[in-house]
């Protein structure tokens, strides 16, 4: 529908979701409810993050903070090594930061570097996003790896250590090395994220620019690690949990950014409101497309398609780590969500893992690597990348989808190699 008939992606998702529900045997009264639930579930967890992140990104771009950060990065690393600077930034930010927040925060920085130094957008952007994606799929405290550690009764610290050993080569292969093959793919990023070149005397200071951009990382990092050092009955633990929720963090950061990058520098509220309004216009279509992908995901989940496929695979006589990776990969292909793929695989693979005495720490990583595979049109990340970078479907498959599969395969190879080393 999207590629051949040029139908709007949101409408195509809705129509296909309804048709798929009928074809897969869902009761007719439940199909509409499943579509609405899928839209509500995906937007419920993303809409605040994406909208506040877009506002923050627009403000960082318009205020000159992104321009200042780009200058600092170029001064430190130089044009020749800017790609590696992006990788390091994405990796460090990606450890405590949820993928959706990291994406919308880093896109303006990527575009500032692209426009200012006339560099290919995918060559610069993909390595950073590869780092964000790998940390999301492999490393605690992200939702899926953290939950898998508990379900597999693995060790959080050891899993994180193994995860770092596996993640770094996967990022290098799927990021800087792969991105070198994409220099000729045309990409004109969304104009709204192109920062206007401001005179040096109108730019915010280095500290306030970096502080504003990194504050979400600082707050989420504190919220993730402080509870590890507190008594479970501590009275401040609920406060930390509340203030550390991604939606609350983004709201706090947006308010502070509005003050430091706007009000404190003499900007009026009308000016800030105009920036925020423009940011919302820019992402309206992205939100609708993500909502449509959530509807299709819910239909496939409620119909039991992913469990059917995984059930057949469980009967195969193959290496348990590879089987877990394959099950997660196929569920990811069906439902589009790396988190859902990882958690759905856990219930299927636990009995096999126990029976074969497979290292639970490696099993977490194998499932995480599989959950990054086969990103396509039912994945919200696929559409965010396509729309933000203004790519055709073909080029999105050639860049984003292939990158996700490369890091998934590299992750599996790393896990199997680690098994040989620690055996």
From TrEMBL:
Subcellular location: Cell membrane
Membrane topology: Multi-pass membrane protein
Keywords: Cell membrane, Membrane, Transmembrane, Transmembrane helix, Transport
Entry superkingdom: Bacteria
Keyword Transmembrane helix: yes
InterPro entries: Glcn_transporter
Alphabetical list of Pfam families matching this protein: GntP_permease
KW Transmembrane helix (keyword) present: yes
Membrane-crossing segments per the record: 6-26, 81-114, 121-139, 159-182, 203-230, 236-262, 283-302, 322-350, 362-385, 397-422
Family recorded in the similarity comment: Belongs to the GntP permease family.
Name the UniProt record assigns to this protein: Gluconate transporter
Organism: Pedobacter jeongneungensis
UniProt gene name: gntT_2
